[in-house]
Each structure stands twice: as structure tokens, then as C-alpha cells.
Amino acid sequence: MIQTRDQQASYEDYPICEIRIPTYKRPQSLRRALESLQKQTYSFWRAIVLDNSPEQEAKEVVTALKDPRILYYPHPHNIGGAKNIDLALQSKSILGGKYACSLEDDNYLFPDCIQENIEILRREKVSILLRNQEVRVDREDGTSQPTGETTRGQWFNRGIYSPLELYASMFFCEGLSNGGLFWDTETIKTDFTLGNFCIKDGWYQEIFRTLRVVEPIYFEPNVGSGYTILRSYRAAGRGSKLPRFLATPAKNNRATQAILRYMLRVYGRELVDKAKVIARSSDQNLKALEYQLLNALYINYRFQRIPLLGRMLLLCKNAFRRLLSGTQFYPALKGMPWPSNYPILLELELRTTKHRMQEDKYRMQEEQPLLSH
Q1: Distance between CA atoms of residues 99 and 91, nearest Å
Q2: Using CA atoms, how far apart are residues 31 and 23, in angstroms rounded to an integer?
Q3: Helices (H) and strands (E) in the chain — how many of each?
Q4: Residue 214 buriedness (CB in 10 A; 0-12 / 13-18 / 19+)
């Protein structure tokens, strides 16, 4: 299409922001997410609903809203939630937008979110923004209730983080949060997608995306969206099977152990020093760091929160855990991009070569041009 000068100037002043919305059998929450887009103070956006349900419940929701900015894209078959989210997190544009983000169907944006995100990227001259989210619980009456928690406020302060500083946050949490990401599709160097190594566990999806970051990011602590959770959610110890008095904010298992051990082998003391800066913000974070260091069998540290007997017991337990896992993870180690430039764990359940080849063949047959950017 040929554009006039006025149209070109308008795009420069008000570039398109594209929102990718993965959804599966949640039409009510999807409607809330889409309505939150319609309430944005920044109206120059386009959204694509990536429906993973064979029954296509989302189609009726999109049709009822009658908004030409919202496109509906049903998958020909259920590709799995992890891969649907992976498609939504492609770094480059798929709808012609300069800016992009992913909005999962059970979350929603606050009215000024897009406008503020664009202003932050322009002001800070970075390509990636990690925006804090308000953790909320959906009530039976359809409203969402604040929990007093945020997704990343416990570990990040306002400002620019280097890749290594971001990696250090994984002693405490997943690092990036899918719903908090906002980026410039034209200047970004990072590839968030995991491709064939996209695993089901959401925790590890975000860990691996964190390890793919190759450029500075900016963290904004003021919340820009609502992140809804189940009533049984607890921030401290989420995913941990340890007793409450031993619980840490991050998962503590063999997979986490393998990842942390490999990271410490690669970055060593420098990574620990970055983690210590984060840990100083609270006693809980200091204790979490010590537990995760012991989980990784790292002892070159001045432990203060865990007594000697407790350290010995945890080291014995974690050493036994490592013996059980052996080297089962290492065949899955692949090269990561600069500045890491080291292999890192990319999948937890190894598949046979034959199975992987069959999946690749099937994926190529079903690949959709719209989402191949």
C-alpha cells in the first residue's frame, strides 16, 4: 500500500504495537484480556488471538467484540500450550508492529500499560523492557483481588540490567516473566523462542528465555498489568517440595541443580557476586541464595543464614541427588548465543533422535506462514 507523507508521519509518531494472545478454552478470561486492550490510552495496536483449542471457543469472543484490530488465528490442531506461548514470543514482528508483547488469556493490561511501555523504551534507549505485574486472585463473582504481591518486585529494582545480572536472578526466581516482557521488534537482538526445546513446565520456559537474553534490559517496578493466579498459590516456595522452613522462592530439584551448577562453572564468582547484590534486599533472599548455592554444591561462599549442621545435611542430600541424576541432562546441552557462548540445559526430558526427527517432520508440514517470521 502506498502511504502519504501524513500517514508515514503518523506511523513514526504512533507506531503499531502488536499483542500476541495465546489462548485455550478460557473464553471468559480471554474477553477480559481483549477488553483491557480496548481500554488502552494508546489506541494504535493490533492483536492476534492464537487459539489452541480444536473447539475454537475464542472465535465467538473475537467476533462479538467487532474490533478490526483483533485478528483470530486458530491452530489446525492443538500444538500444546508451551509452543503456543513460544509463537507469541517471537522477537520480530508478525503484524507489522514496531513494538510487541505477549498477553496470556488469563491476564490483562492496565489502561496506561502500552503507552507507558513505549515511553520507557524510548527514554531508556533499550530494546527490552521487563515490567512488573500485580499478582491477583480471581474471585467467584468475576472480579480479581490483589494479593499484595508482584511478580518481580521482590528481586529487581528500577534500572538497566546486564545479561549476567539477569542470569543471577535465577537463584531466586525464573528471571524473565513472559507477561512482563515488552520489546522493540526492529532493534531487539535477543531471540526469546525455544523452538524444538520448548518444554511444558512454565518455570523452565522462562529460565531458558532468560538465558537467551544477549543485551541490556530495563526493569520497571510500577505494575502495568494483572497476573492472575490460583487460590492455592504461594509466592515463597512455589514449586518446591521442601518443608516450609526449608522452602525457597525458586524450585529446588535435580533440574535446577544441573542448571545452577553449569552456570556457576561458566561464570563462577562473578555470577555469585551479582546474586549477592540481589540477596541483600531481604533476609529471605539471603537465605534463598545460600540454599541454592548448596543445591549446586557450591561452598566458596561465606554462609551466614544456614548453620553448619544444616549446611552439611543439605550438601549430603544434594550430593546424593546429583549421583542419582548422573549425566542424564548433559546430552541435551546446546550452545547459547553471545554473551553466554556456552552450552546450557535446554530440555529436561530427553527424547530419542528418532522421536525428535518425527516431530520436526510433522512441524514442517503444519507450519503456518503467518507465524514463521
Answers
A1: 10
A2: 11
A3: 11, 14
A4: middle
| φ, ψ for residue 339, nearest 5 deg | -90, 0
pLDDT score, position 230: 66
Whole-Å CA distances, 134 to 26, 130, 294: 20, 13, 31
Contact 347, 197 (CB under 8 A): yes
Smallest Cα–Cα separation from 21: which of 108, 133, 116, 102? 102
Candidates 135, 131, 220, 216; CA nearest to 177 is: 131
Q: Which residues are within 8 A (CB) of 30 and not within 5 positions of it... i.e. 6 or more apart?
A: 21, 23, 49, 58, 61, 105
- Residue 332, all three cell numbers: 541435551
At 179, list the grid cell: 507477561
Residue 100 φ then ψ, to 5°: -150, 155
How far is Cα 255 from Cα 311, in angstroms, rounded to an integer? 20
Amino acid at 219: F
CA 251, CA 239: separation in Å to the nearest integer?
A: 5
Whole-number pLDDT of residue 59: 96
Q: At 148, which helix (H) or strand (E)? A: strand 144-150
According to DSSP, the residues that pair with 74 across neighbouring strands are 51
Polymer length of the chain: 373
Long-range contacts of 57-63 (CB under 8 A, 24+ apart): 57/25, 57/26, 57/27, 58/23, 58/27, 58/30, 58/105, 60/27, 61/27, 61/30, 61/31, 61/34, 62/34
Task: Please tell me the predicted confidence (pLDDT) of residue 373.
Answer: 38
* CA atoms of 133 and 317, how far apart (whole Å): 35
CA distance 234 to 137: 11
Beta partners for residue 101, in sequence order:
19, 182
Cell 528471571 identifies what position?
175
Averaged over successive runs of 10 residues, the pLDDT of the chain (373 residues) comes to: 42 87 94 97 97 94 97 92 93 95 96 98 97 90 83 95 94 94 97 80 85 93 91 45 48 78 88 95 91 92 92 87 60 43 34 39 42 43
Report the SS3 class of residue 271. Answer: helix
Q: What are phi and psi of 311, to 5 degrees?
A: -65, -40
Cα(188)–Cα(9) distance, integer angstroms: 23
> pLDDT tens for residues 24-71?
999 999 999 999 999 999 999 999 999 999 999 999 999 999 999 999
